[in-house]
User: Fold this.
Amino acid sequence: MTRKRILLISAAALLLIQLIRIDKSNPPVDPKLDFKAVAKPPAEVLSLIREACYNCHSDETQYPWYSNVAPVSWLLKYHVNEAKEHFNFSTLGVLNSEDLKWALGTAAKEIREGEMPLNSYTWMHPEARLTSAQRALLAHWLDSFTPLSTGYGAINPGQIISI
Ligand code: HEC
Assistant:
């Protein structure tokens, strides 16, 4: 094959794969089950977590412009699916208090160890980068969270007491 031919075929393939679009819809969000209602974090903790984690670990994913370009879009969708399978800030309220405590503990660990947010993400999303002081603040708060202090699970495990 000539070089020109290889180039043409590659270009055609790149065009063709654009036909395979990802699903960018989000499931409906129930605010009662969200991190904010369930864990009642201070405003700073909430805004840092929303900025650094929610695009992958919640049902409020906002897809960037490059999510329109295959094959990057496929990788992105794969990351979001994987992330939500492990941890979803939008549905923490389905957990019983023990599991909730454990889940927030794993989030603390990922943040403290610098595993999350993923480097491939902060590279494109500078607003999601955490300073070491912010990491320490988040990890400390998440680790010291106790479900009963927010009334969570006091009546029915896994149920939020409305106030
Ligand atoms: C770019 C998407 C993305 C962002 C942003 C992101 N994560 Fe993740 N997260 C993932 C993926 C993908 C996985 C599953 C694969 C893995 O562990 O690497 C994961 C896994 C996890 C897990 C489960 C780890 C385990 O061992 O089970 C926790 C907890 C977690 N993330 C917390 C967070 C927190 C907290 C933030 C924000 C500070 C965050 N993530 C930001 C994509 C993301």
